[in-house]
Amino acid sequence: MFSSHRQRDLRATVPQRPSLRLASSAEHHARITARLTARDRWLARLLAEHRVLSSPQITQAAFGSRSAANQRLQRLYTWRICDRFQPYIGRGRAPMCYVLDTTGAHLLAHADGLNPAELKFRPDRSIGIAHSLRLAHLLGVNEFFTSLIAAARTETPTRALTAWWPETRAARHFGDHVRPDAYGRWREHDREIEWFLEWDTGSYQLSRLTAKLPGYAALAATTGIITPLLVVFAGPIREVHARRGFTEHLRTSARPHDVPIATTTVTDLQAADSPAAAIWLPLNAREPDRRRLIDLPAAWPHVDPPTSSETTEPAEAATSPTPRLAPPEPMPPYTTAELSWNPR
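^ that's the sequence the OP posted. Answer follows.
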């Protein structure tokens, strides 16, 4: 279920109770390595790449039930594979949020043949996301993709999330022109769609979002690849006003078809419980004509389908001054039958 919390609601973190967490040491790392499953390692990479995930998001992505997820996450927390915090929301209880911890970072570094010290991983920076003014925004973007993973699990392998890039990774590739909140690809049967994602929290002027459209147009002109832009708005009123602004801007653009846009709202996502559902309204369509995610390309016949499902990092990342961990596969590395598996 998509959260409706605004950033201003996440005012602080609930104090942690004392816990018997294991000390992080070389001996501890060696002992824990043999006890980690493929799912554990995948979750650690997911946290390294996407910074923070709530317990419901982790359940969506990797477990068959909430109790199984909580049991395993408690063990990973004790082993210092991940750390956790609980935002304070004033009313009710916010779900626990998880970030990468020292043991998880060290084990991933060794798996990738890296010196853990070269990663410059700092647990205080990792858990510091708890106090970030962008926490609600980041959780919203990540829930968009974990919901797609959950939707794909019901019909694997005919449906799959084939790419999920966070803002930081997308910026390394497209930052000269634009910095999308995420990049993704979705496949159903023999059809596939790729997109850039913009997530509106309702906390800034809509003109700021409209001002990003020239960057997307410049990217399309430079690469020769037209990539749809999907925008999720905090509410229907903002969606209406933004669509009007998008239309006015593209009307004066020299190549308006280079930025195909479809919109939806958090309310629609909450009702459908999946971004794959018929909730997307292309900019050139009327209100009743909301479409499924995989059906959006029919609204833009001039847009070529993705040419490859390749999602690995280009070689230039290996020459970066700061070594980076390999990104995770967008889908969990196990079958649907293993989702209820909860190894001790």
